[in-house]
Inverse folding.
């Protein structure tokens, strides 16, 4: 099988590419390196750098020949920041996805695997289950749900098979800890390594179920070999929610640092977010998730080996109104 993996220099995408190779697939890996790193790309993958927002580049990916499957993980997953970078968000997460879907239809790809997000659910829908009606609260969630709807329409019109995964709060080795707008565990680790306090918005009682990448990437990779997964949507990730304050203690413990917290003004965000995974267990089989303690210890070892990073500021803020002061 020959497959295309987008976002393959990024965090989850590089892990999915690894698992595809382990399954004996020939992998073509692409990324624009806007948030990923070339060294994340598996050595055995065929590497092509480019921007999925450019339809001519997307079309050129098929010059390598046809693909059996497309795994689309290229995205900028910053829910909170997406309010302030609306154009960039929709171009990167929606328009780029449509460029890819167009080519998948033209070249009769057998299945299009899309990594969405539980951001599509919005708030006050707990636990989040696949039969709920999505009500996204931010442009990031809106863009992800729009792609889900387009895939459903493409299946009905053109017969393009798809599988949608909605992971949540994924962390682990290779995560970009320099991005100060997303990936809270990476942000906390980077702050502690630089002698800073961990920045917590509001009272820190928000809850999330943090998912180690090994609870997500292997399932995504092997999904194309599971007929019952076709044209379905799956929540995927960890089950047990933790508060942000509980998370700070685990991160500090794993790094051997004092648990110093700096409370910032609360921002507009979904307060509680965790999902049900009975559907993915039914189709893919039961899976024992990596515990938060074990997962954070593994990520901490990787971060300590690579050292801290200078936080990178997003230079193209489109709307300044109501932007959290710490993001300016």
């Amino acid at each position: 099988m020959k497959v295309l993996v987008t976002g393959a220099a990024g965090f989850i995408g590089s892990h999915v590419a690894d698992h595809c190779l382990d399954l004996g697939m020939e992998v073509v890996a692409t990324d624009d390196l806007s948030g990923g790193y070339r060294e994340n790309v598996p050595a055995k993958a065929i590497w092509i750098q480019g921007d999925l927002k450019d339809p001519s580049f997307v079309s050129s990916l098929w010059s390598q020949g046809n693909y059996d499957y497309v795994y689309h993980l290229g995205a900028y997953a910053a829910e909170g920041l997406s309010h302030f970078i609306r154009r960039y968000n929709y171009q990167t997460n929606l328009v780029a996805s449509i460029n890819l879907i167009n080519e998948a239809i033209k070249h009769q790809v057998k299945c299009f695997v899309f990594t969405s997000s539980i951001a599509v659910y919005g708030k006050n829908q707990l636990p989040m289950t696949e039969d709920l009606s999505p009500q996204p609260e931010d442009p990031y969630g809106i863009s992800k749900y729009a792609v889900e709807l387009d895939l459903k329409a493409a299946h009905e019109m053109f017969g393009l098979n798809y599988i949608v995964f909605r992971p949540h709060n994924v962390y682990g080795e290779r995560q970009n800890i320099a991005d100060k707008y997303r990936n809270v565990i990476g942000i906390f680790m980077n702050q502690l390594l630089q002698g800073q306090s961990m920045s917590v918005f509001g009272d820190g009682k928000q809850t999330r179920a943090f998912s180690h990448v090994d609870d997500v990437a292997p399932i995504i990779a092997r999904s194309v070999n599971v007929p019952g997964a076709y044209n379905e949507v799956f929540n995927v990730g960890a089950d047990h929610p933790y508060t942000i304050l509980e998370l700070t203690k685990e991160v500090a413990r794993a790094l051997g640092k004092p648990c110093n917290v700096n409370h910032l003004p609360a921002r507009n965000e979904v307060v509680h977010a965790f999902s049900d995974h009975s559907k993915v267990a039914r189709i893919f089989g039961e899976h024992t998730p990596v515990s938060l303690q074990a997962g954070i210890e593994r990520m901490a070892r990787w971060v300590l080996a690579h050292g801290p990073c200078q936080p990178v500021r997003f230079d193209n803020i489109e709307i300044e109104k109501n932007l959290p002061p710490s993001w300016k």
Q: What stands out?
A: The chain has a mean pLDDT of 96. The two ends are 46 Å apart (CA to CA). Residues 280 and 286 are 8 Å apart (CA to CA). The chain is about 35% helix and 15% strand.
